[in-house]
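Usage example:
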Amino acid sequence: QQQVKQSPQSLIVQKGGISIINCAYENTAFDYFPWYQQFPGKGPALLIAIRPDVSEKKEGRFTISFNKSAKQFSLHIMDSQPGDSATYFCAARTGGYQKVTFGTGTKLQVIP
Amino acid sequence: NAGVTQTPKFRILKIGQSMTLQCTQDMNHNYMYWYRQDPGMGLKLIYYSVGAGITDKGEVPNGYNVSRSTTEDFPLRLELAAPSQTSVYFCASKQQGDTEAFFGQGTRLTVV
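Running the assembly step on the lines above writes:
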C-alpha cells in the first residue's frame, strides 16, 4: 500500500518552463511534508518543506502548494533550469517516531 | 563535518552470504533510518531507531536486522542474501522536529 502517491513518474520541461509534480496522501497523522531532490549517485537532500496548516510556501524558484482538505500537495519549479534535472521525491512524516514515508519519485529532465 | 557516512559504497554478494552495511553519523542525531531504493519504487523504510537501544521495523523489514548500541552507529545486517535484496541502500539521520533528514551516499548491493 503506497501511502504517498506521486505523479508523474517522469517529466520533460523546456528551460524556462514550469515543472509541476503532484502528491497525494491518505494518512491524516502526517504532520510535515518535505520534498527531496536527488542527483544520480547521491543521497536525497531536502529541498523545501511545509506543514499542513500552511497553504503555500515559496523558496526562490520552488513553491509548495498544499490542500489539506483534498490531502494533496504539489511542487512547482518556476523558470526551470538544466541544473534542476534530478529525481524529486515528496514525503510525509508522522510526528511521534519521526517516520518519513516517501513517494515513488519523479525524474525531471530540463532541456535547453 | 562528515555528516552520514555509509560503507561500503558497492558490494556484490552471492546468494546465502551475509554482510553488514555500516552507517555512522557525527551530528548527534537521535533518529536514524535505513531505506532501500529500487527503480520506480521510491525509498522504502526498512528499519528505524529513535535512540540508542531502540529500534523498530519499517515497511520492508524481512531479511534484515539492525542494532543501535550507540547514538552514532546504526548497522544493517543481511543474514541470508537473496536476489530480491539487490538494491541501493541509504542510511539517514535527523533531529527531532521539523528538521532535515541527512542521507548518506548510499550502498549499491548486488546479490547474484
